[in-house]
Write a structure and sequence with these properties.
The chain contains 18 helices and 17 strands. It is of the alpha/beta class and 528 residues long. A hairpin with a 4-residue loop joins strand 2 and strand 3.
């Protein structure tokens, strides 16, 4: 532009004089300079427009990148990072003596099962539907984020003297999400566990990101407590919950280390033939011999092992040890093993058991796999296939804890079980409760009709032993016959009773297996 002004100041008067006839022809150099300046102006304007467009596009891209960094693609909610920043701002703005913030952690129950059974597309549909339902019930001023695979977080301002408003909101969330999600003509049932933490719970109201992280952490702790209490419910954060969670985390680490270090060992509970009062086998029960906690029962560590995904590895190690222990017993004594419902979701479970039988040269006919009624509620087709595979190889399969779960008479008729185990809740009150006695009588009569042998669990005294003995032939187990013992104690007991394995037992076991296979082949020929 400066070049244009300087040159044009000389060129323009000369050109004007030439056009008016005052002087000779225009100065060619000055004319060309003028044209060049005009061209430069035009080119500069085009470049200016191009640069503006480029900057606008860059700003738009940066805004989109910033939006994507803050938003969860699947649900359109905020993500964890942006939610924490928003919560920090709200803590600064909203909290005072009258106003408070509630952080609400919402976690889907059994979401992994939805994914495993129906596919990831179904899982995505559940997540989108959950986000939409939570967003609909969220009041004005509330913020919703998806912060993990199946976990959402909300923050809601409320009057510090009216926590019932937050409880009402949590109840609506539980109810809304519990409505089945329809996907590809399949109704997907989901529930949520909810934990709530208030800014009031912060001992001294921390400002900024540290306060936000602390509030989110406390909501998470309350949510885990809700899961522990049965799921599909909500709880406010309370300080003792934090200690419980720390202990839970300690147990998780201990279980993982214990599996690697061989701290989980089989104990054995006697099983007695009530008609002859003779020992006929043992049920293997897991114990954790923790260097720090002592001997820990399965009711403590089995649910945690299931949740953290190590129950399969733990169970296989125990079964392998039990096979080696049972090989030292008389060949007529059986070994019963409980199987977790989580293991029954593994389509290769039956093959894994058969592989262990071969590896340890343990006779299949001495093994009794016990599954609970809970397994029948999940995937009846897979369960039927597994039971059939195991029985085809000579393994016995029992239905454990009968009467407490989901089994029906039609399932008993259609599933090829070898035995029913009556749950201890019916047995322990057998003499004190006439209804229990009538129920056990009915189960025994039904089993006789179905030609299914029975084992009664939880026999605590001689009186119950005699009542059951009068009902017909069955096996029994419980503290009346002795508490579960480690392998060394069992060997001492069997030595006294002269029930240890002999050298001829291996030959007898091989002959028994060969006879079973021959009978199966002959049966197949007749069927053909």
């Amino acid at each position: 532009m400066i070049l244009f002004v300087g040159t044009a100041g000389v060129a323009l008067p000369n050109i004007i004089k030439t056009w008016s006839g005052s002087v000779g022809g225009p100065d060619a150099v000055l004319t060309n300079a003028l044209i060049l300046n005009i061209a430069l102006i035009l080119l500069g304007w085009r470049r200016y427009k191009a640069l503006n467009a480029e900057l606008a596009e860059r700003r738009q891209s940066e805004e989109e990148a910033r939006r994507l960094a803050e938003i969860d693609d699947l649900t359109g909610c905020l993500n964890r990072r942006s939610f924490a920043a928003r919560l920090a701002i709200l803590l600064e703005q909203e909290c005072n003596s009258e106003r408070a913030l509630a952080a609400i952690a919402v976690d889907l129950d059994n979401f992994k099962q939805v994914n495993d059974l129906n596919g990831h597309a179904a899982g995505d549909a559940v997540l989108r539907a959950t986000a939409e339902r939570l967003g609909r019930v969220l009041p004005s001023g509330g913020v919703l984020a998806r912060i993990g695979g199946d976990e959402f977080l909300c923050v809601v301002p409320y009057h510090a003297s009216a926590p019932d408003r937050i409880e009402h909101l949590a109840t609506r969330m539980v109810d809304r999400v519990a409505t089945p999600v329809n996907h590809d003509e399949v109704a997907l049932d989901v529930t949520v566990s909810i934990g709530i933490a208030s800014s009031i719970h912060l001992e001294t109201l921390e400002k900024g990101s540290s306060g936000a992280q602390d509030l989110m952490h406390k909501a998470d702790i309350a949510m885990y407590h809700a899961k522990k209490q049965g799921k599909n419910r909500f709880y406010w954060f309370e300080p003792p919950m934090e200690n419980e969670l720390r202990f839970r985390n300690k147990l998780e680490s201990g279980i993982r280390a214990g599996i690697a270090n061989g701290e989980f060992v089989p104990y054995y509970e006697q099983q007695i033939d009530l008609e002859t009062d003779k020992l006929v086998g043992f049920e293997m029960l897991a114990r954790w011999e923790s260097p720090e906690l002592g001997v820990v029962g399965p009711d403590i560590f089995i649910p945690i092992a299931e949740e953290i995904g190590v129950i399969g590895e733990l169970s296989e190690k125990l079964i392998e040890q039990a096979f080696e222990d049972a090989k030292q017993w008389d060949h007529q004594l059986t070994l019963s093993v409980n199987i977790s419902p989580v293991q029954m979701r593994d389509p290769w479970f039956a093959q894994k058991v058969l592989k262990l039988l071969v590896k340890h040269r343990f006779p299949p006919h001495r093994l009794d796999i016990e599954i609970t009624e809970t397994c029948l509620h999940e995937n009846i087709g897979m369960v039927r296939s597994m039971i059939t595979s195991l029985r085809n190889q000579g393994v016995h399969v029992s239905l454990d804890d009968f009467g407490t779960g989901y089994s029906s008479l039609s399932q008993l008729r259609s599933l090829p079980f070898d035995r029913l185990k009556i749950d201890r809740t019916f047995i322990s009150e057998l003499r004190a409760d006439e209804n229990n006695t009538a129920l056990v009588d009915a189960i025994v009569a039904m089993s006789d009709g179905l030609k299914l042998p029975i084992t009664a669990e939880g026999i605590e005294n001689e009186a119950i032993h005699e009542v059951l003995k009068s009902m017909g032939r069955m096996k029994g187990q419980g503290y009346h016959y002795g508490r579960p013992e480690p392998a060394a104690k069992v060997l001492e007991r069997l030595s006294v009773q002269e029930l240890l394995a002999s050298e001829s037992d291996d030959v007898l076991d091989l002959e028994a297996e060969r006879k079973k296979r021959d009978d199966k082949v002959e049966s197949g020929k007749r069927a053909g």
